[in-house]
Amino acid sequence: MATYGWDIKPLIENDHWKFLNINGNEPFVKKVTTEMKQNRTVIIDSLSELLLTHKTDDVIKLLTTMVHQNNVQEEFHLLLLTEGMQTPQAETMMEHFAEGVIVFNTTWDTEATLRHIRVKKMQGITVPIRRLQYNISKKGVVIETATRIN
Fold it and tell me: End-to-end CA distance of the chain, in Å?
């Protein structure tokens, strides 16, 4: 985030955002919900690591608990899942139990880096049927709404 000039330090210092790395056998569901109940946006890096170090049922319990807590507090939280680090079945299960699934893709050609975002699932909205081009700037993730002609 610092690479793009995002000043998230005030969000962390004011306890609005909480980055969590969950290691070993710590009781992660309780740890995450404790942070959520304090009205913090929780960022977990990464759900893929949790799937490698914990039982799938425990990770599903985390997702369902977070969905319930989201409905109570109307907050958003970010869980990163790296495609290909777990079985396709585990990825599908995580997507099923999540409230929303956003896929970020980056491809490179000889002249440019192309970034696309695809909303696969999002509670409460009609999901766009096309991939959207985006860029990362100092303002954050910016969806490019104009169609480019090459």
Answer: 30
